[in-house]
Amino acid sequence: MLGLQFMSNDRIANPAQISHNEVEANRDGEQVGLAIKEEEVVVTPKKVEIVEENSVPIAHVVEENIETVTREHTAQVTAVSIDPIKAILDGGTSIEDIKASTPIDEFIVEGETLKISNIEIQDPELESAIVSEPQETFETMNDVDAYIPPVKRDLTSSPLIPYPPPDREYISVTGFQFCDILENATFFTDIELDGPGINGTLSISNAARLVEYIDNSAQQLVAHPEFQGNFQRETRFTQNVTADSLKRGVCWNIAQGNLVWWKPYVRFGQILDGKFGGRVLRTIDPSALSFLNFDGSQSPREVAADSHSKPHYNLAYVVMVHTNADNVAALIDALADPTVFIYLHVDLNADKKFQKEIREVIKDRQHIALMPNPFAASWAHVSLIWAEIRAFFDLLDLISFDYVINLSGADYPLKSAKTIYNHLERKAGGNWMWWSTAHKNSWELDTRWYNMYHCREVGRNWDKKCYFPDNIHGWREFDGYKDLFPRLYKTSQWLILHRSSVEYLRSSESAKLLLMHAEHTFMPDEIFFSTFFAASPFNAKTYRDPKRMMFWNGGSHPYDWTNNDRGVIKAWAKHFMWIRKVDVIGDPALKNTLDEIRRKDKMSNRVVLKYKGGIIPVD
Questions:
Q1: CA distance 373 to 556
Q2: Any idea what the Cα angle at residue 149 is, between residues 148 and 153, rounded to 5°?
Q3: Which residue in 52, 323, 349, 496 has a CA-CA distance of 20 to 30 Å to 11?
C-alpha cells in the first residue's frame, strides 16, 4: 500500500541505556561479571574474569594459578587460547595487538574452520584482519589539516565559512530560455566580467545580456555533432520527471563563469581573494532539483500538518530494493520493531512483478511505507544519491526520528533495534560512515570528480558509456568550491545520519551546489556524503565506522556471504550491526546463523578503525 500505517502518536520512550554492571552467563554456565574494577581483579583458577580497559571488556583466562591483575597491567595479560583459534595471544603477538583485540564471541562452535570462501582466516580477532579502538577515542571527520592556507591566494580557506556569504552583494537572475535550471539563480555582483556586452560587474542593467550569453553558449555546445545520434539526451529521473541531462550539465558548467573550458566570462587577472576563485554563480533555485524536495513542496500526501502530531521512532530505515521480494520480506521481518520505521524505495526500473510482490509484502504491516515517486537508479550515477536524499527529506516530513540508516535488499541486521539505538546513543547525535584518508585529492578522486561524465547509449562497455567525448574537453576545475569543500573524500554509500544532520543537509545552499556538480561525475555516491559532512558543523560528530560487515575480494561488487562463512561471521559479528551482501532465502542455514547472532545481541563498544585482508566497509 502507498499510505502509512502509524502506531500511536505518543512518543516512544527511549530504551534504557546499556548497563555496565549486568551479569551474564557464558556458554558453560559460569557467571561472568562486567563490573569495572578500579584497583585490582583477583582471578580464581579456571575461571573467566572480564576486566575493562577504556570501557572495552578483555577476557583474562587463568588455568593453574591465582593471579592479580591491575588496570595498568591489563593490556599485557597473556590469555589462554580458546579452540579453535589456537594461540591467538601466545606471546608472539605484540602488546599493541592485544590492546586492539576483543574477546572471542562465546558462541563460536568448537572445531569450526574460519573461512571466507577459500580464504582461511587465522586470527580473526587481531590486527591481521581488523584494527579496532575504544569508541571514546576514535577518529572523526574534524580534519584540521584541510584548512591550512594554500599557496593559491584566491581561496579563503576559512573552516566552515557561512554560505551564502553575508557580506557579498548579489542579484537574482531570470529570463533563461534554454538553461531553465538557472531560472531564479543568484549571481555575485563584485567580480569583473569579460563577455559580449557584459564588461564590468554584473548588475540589473546587463543581467539580460548574461542570460543571453549563457543560453547561446550552452546551445552551441550541445549542438556539437558528437552529441547527436545515439548520444543519450532524454533521461527519465522519476516517473514524473524526464529531462535533458546533457543540457543540465552544460548550462551548469557555463554558469560558473570561471571554468576555462566552458565559455568563461570572468575577466582573468583580477584579484579574487575571498571570492571562491572567481565563481560568479552564488545559489541555485530549489526548482532545479525539485525532485529532491528541498523546499517541502513535493512532500508525500501523508505528511502531518502539525509536527507535534508526528509519530516518533528511534530508527528510520531507507531500504533501496529492485529484486528478490522474498529476501526483502525477510529483511523487513528482521528489522520490525515498534521503535523502527521503514521507508522502501522500489527502483523505477524494477520489473512489474517485483513491484506488485512488494506491495503485497507490506500490505498489512505497520510502521512502513513505499516512496510514492521512486527513481530510476543506476550504478555509479548520482541517481543513487538522489533516491537516498529524497527519502531522507520525505522522512523529515512524515515522522519524527533520531537516526536514519540506508540499507539494500541484500542486507540483514545482526543486532536488535534496542541494541543498535543504545549503541548509537553512546555518541548521541552522531553520524557514522566510512571514508578513506588515503584517497584525499588522489588521482582516482580527481578523475571521477573533475571530469564531466555523460552516458552514451546502453550497450557499450561502462568505461566508454559514461565518459565525456574525447574531442570535447570535459575537465571542470573545482577551485570555485574549495573554500566550501577543501578536500574530497572517498567513502562508502552506507551510512547512519542523525536527524539534525539531515535537517542541515536540507537547509544547505552549498549542498545544492555540490549535488549539481555531482550530477555529471562518476560514482558520486562514493564522494558526496563524506565530502559534504567533512565541511559541515557535524564533522566532529561524524565517526569513521558504518557498522557494516562486508568483504571485498575483487571486482565491482562485494562478496556474497554464505553459511560456509559462519565461523568468521560469528567471530566478527560483535563489531557490526548489519551484514551485506546476503541471500537469506536462498541460503536458509545462513538466515538461521544470522538470526542466532541477533538473538544473542552482543555488541562490542569498540569501533572498527581499519580493515585488512579484504574486510573493507565499501560498497
A1: 28
A2: 160
A3: 496
Q: What angle separates helix 588-600 from helix 325-335, to the nearest 10 degrees?
A: 10
In sequence order, which ranges of 366-479 are alpha helices (DSSP H)? Answer: 383-398, 417-425, 443-450, 462-465
CA angle in degrees (0–180, nearest 5) for 246-523-351? 80
Report the distance separating Cα 406 and Cα 342, nearest Å.
10
Alpha carbon dihedral 421, 292, 542, 503, in 10-degree steps, equals -70
C-alpha cell of residue 179 = 538553461
Residue 305: partners with Cβ closer than 8 Å, 6 or more residues away = none
| Residue where the block lists cell 562514493 | 526
This prediction's pTM: 0.77
Residues 570, 27 contacting (CB under 8 angstroms): no
Query: 393 Cβ partners below 8 Å, 6+ apart?
Result: 292, 293, 294, 296, 502, 506
Burial (CB < 10 A; 0-12, 13-18, 19+), residue 456, is middle
Q: What is the pLDDT of residues 420-467, one digit of tens each?
A: 999 999 889 999 988 875 544 577 788 888 888 876 544 444 444 455
d(CA 123, CA 128): 7
Tell me how far apart the alpha carbons of residues 596 and 601 are, in angstroms, rounded to a whole number: 9
Measured CA to CA, the distance from residue 13 to residue 260 in angstroms comes to: 57
List of residues 6+ apart from 367 with CB closer than 8 A: 5, 6, 7, 313, 336, 338, 340, 341, 342
DSSP β-bridge partners for residue 171: 187
**Which residues fall within 8 angstroms of residue 588, CB to CB, at 6 or more apart?**
none
Judge contact between 196 and 213, C-beta under 8 A. yes
φ and ψ at residue 532, rounded to 5 degrees:
-70, -50
Q: Which of 405, 610, 603 is nearest to 498 (CA)?
A: 405
Tens digits of residue pLDDT in 89-122 = 233 333 333 333 333 333 334 455 555 554 454 4
For the chain, report the end-to-end CA distance as a whole number of angstroms. 30
Question: Long-range contacts: 141-145, Cβ < 8 Å, 24+?
Answer: 141/435, 141/489, 141/530, 141/533, 141/534, 141/539, 141/540, 141/542, 141/544, 142/539, 142/540, 143/487, 143/534, 143/539
**Cα(312)–Cα(301) distance, integer angstroms:** 18
